[in-house]
Design brief:
Blueprint: H1 2-15, H2 19-23, E1 29-35, H3 37-41, E2 46-53, E3 59-61, E4 78-81, E5 105-107, E6 112-118, E7 130-140, E8 146-157
Parallel strand pairs: 1-8
Antiparallel strand pairs: 1-2, 2-6, 3-5, 4-7, 7-8
Length: 167
Amino acid sequence: MKHVFIVLIGMASMQGCNASQMIAKDTDILFTCAVDAPAIASGRVILNCSASNVSGKPVRFLPWNTPLDSRLMGRFLDITSQDGEALEYQGMMVKRAAPIPSDYIKLQETEVRNNSLDLTISYDFNANNSYTISYSTDQVGEDGSVVKLYMPMVEFSTGDVIGNGNL
C-alpha cells in the first residue's frame, strides 16, 4: 500500500495537484488502509487504517460504521473474493440511539487518526484466497453538512491458516 501512495504523490506532483485530489477531489476524510501481514500469518485479518482530513478545514463526523469505529458493529465494508463473491457479514448488528455531541469526532485540517479492526470476527475468510475490501460513503456531519468518506480498494491474500477451523 505504501508503494501505491508514493506513486500517487509522484503522479500528482507531475500534474500539478495533490494526491487526495486524484483520489476524489471532493473527499473530506481519506482512509488509507492495509491488511496486517503478520496477522494473516497467524490466522487473523486485521485492517490497519489511517484517517486523514484532506478537506482543508476541520471536519466533525460520526466514526460509527467507518474504519475508525472501535469495533465492527454492522456491515459497512464491501469484501469480495477473487471469484467476485461478496462475503456475508456475520458479526453483531447494533442499533444505536440517536447520536449525541460526544459521539462525534473532530479531525483538524490535515490531522490523521489510526485504528485497527479485526475482520475475522465478522467475516468467514477462506484459506489460500484473494480478497478486495472497499468502502465509500457520505455521512451527515454534526452541523448537517455532508462529509464524504473514501477508502481506496485494499487487496490481500490469505495463507493456509485462515478458515473456519482456524479462527
